[in-house]
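Kindly inspect this one:
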Amino acid sequence: MDPWTALLARATAERQLAAEGRWDELAESTAERVRMAAALGPAPVGAKLVLEALAVVQAELTSALAAARAEIAREIAALPTARGAVAGYAASQAAPERRWVDDAA
């Protein structure tokens, strides 16, 4: 397999990782693909179709990452409600109420 087709194959596999939400594996694979691409130099004229296909797959990956980021942002936006409840509980546990020796406040 020529190196340009190998890049396309790796990107296609990354698209599947993104679809499955396997983000750590996707990050590792993408880093390796970047290293592979950096080592190649200029593409030959014959690689045009492979590079066009690679651009399509990359656009799909970018879209999948943007959608995942938006979902995480929605989840984070929902956190303040839960944080308020936790903060209220923590405040009630933080300082014991002062009492007199005979339990009369």
About this structure: The CA atoms of residues 18 and 64 lie 7 Å apart. The chain has four helices and no strands. Residues 48-77 form the longest helix (30 residues).
